[in-house]
Amino acid sequence: MVPTVEWKDGTVCLVDQSRLPGAVEFLTCRTYQDVAGAIRQLKVRGAPAIGVTAALGVALGAQSLGETEYASFAKAVLAICDQLAATRPTAVNLFWAIERMKRRLASLRDCPVSSIKQSLIAEAQAILDEDVLLCKRIGRYGAELIRDGQTVLTHCNAGALATAGYGTALGVIRAAWEQGKKIRVIADETRPVLQGARLTTWELMQDHIPVTLITDNMAGTLMRQGKIHLCIVGADRIAANGDVANKIGTYSVAVLAKAHSIPFYVAAPYSTIDLKTESGANIPIEERSSVEVTTIHGSHPVAPDGVTVYNPAFDVTPAELITGIITERGVYKPGELAEQFQA
Ligand code: MRU
Fold first, then answer.
1. pLDDT, tens digit, 9 for 90 and up, residues 175-220
2. 236 is catalytic
3. Active-site residue, from 236, 243, 274, 315
4. Considering only CA atoms, which residue is closest to atom 8 of ligand 1?
5. pTM for the full model?
6. Are 268 and 134 in contact (CB under 8 A)?
7. Residue from 66, 67, 68, 44 nearest 56 by CA
8. Which residue, among 103, 98, 122, has the nearest Cα to 39 in the 3D structure?
9. I need a surface site. Which of 120, 156, 298, 307 has the fewest CB within 10 A?
10. Most ligand 1 atoms within 8 A of CB, residue of 17, 155, 157 to mutate
């Protein structure tokens, strides 16, 4: 797989996901504002990936500061953190990663600014490296849930592209495949931005994992025909009660899975679990531009000019529809998470 995002020669380099699968192009961010723009415009997307990218953005912004005293330097870094945190509201990994960078900064208050700058790069890199490890652990636990010959439905892209590498939901699928299980994947196209059609199929095809693309409204029929054995999706934020915010359409998949007695799993690392948010009702849901709905991928219009559009980017799946949450520590019932992940 191409690296989703990396620190390269004093820049933040990422694969431009808005261009995939047509072109594999790399975007070089030279300022933290470039990083913020890339997150906002979905050039990098997926909860863990935007957390990692924001952390790298904080480190990048810090390098450009001329302040030599801790107090003024820290104030400027915190202002950078605020701007990166304002890019997208739903994925808690973004805020988690920025908070971790802030904690590292505060822990270095007695060090020279030049060495703090280096330590911030190291911390962002540690967040990136840790994310890949977490995904691999999630993969190992989750693979146990998939039997040889089964077909898994996934929604959106919770793969290597949505993380620092390997993926959460797709990490589980990858791990099962690596164990030699002959599995198949059904990928929902995931309107409006088509992360399933553009990214999940591309990623799986790179790894030669059999994948079939369907439109979002086909999942019910396939379930009724017995063609789907389990569903695995990622998450942008998991509330303390086990409710899960994920890409719009996830809730519909979960309802359909329940109606057909098909297990519905969510795969996510601890950085996606937000115990400070009591339930899904308290999770902020991003609303995005109408253009995403009135066009296919920003260019081909499919609706009349001026039509009223509602475009929430995420929905909330209530805990009772979720069979289990696959984490790097094991698989838990949604109601068990708060106890397992208390600090
Ligand atoms: O709008 P996006 O593409 O950032 O939304 C991504 C998703 O909803 C993913 O399913 C989620 O972030 C989990 S990624 C491991």
1. 999 999 999 999 999 999 999 999 999 999 999 999 999 999 999 9
2. yes
3. 236
4. 247
5. 0.98
6. no
7. 44
8. 98
9. 307
10. 157
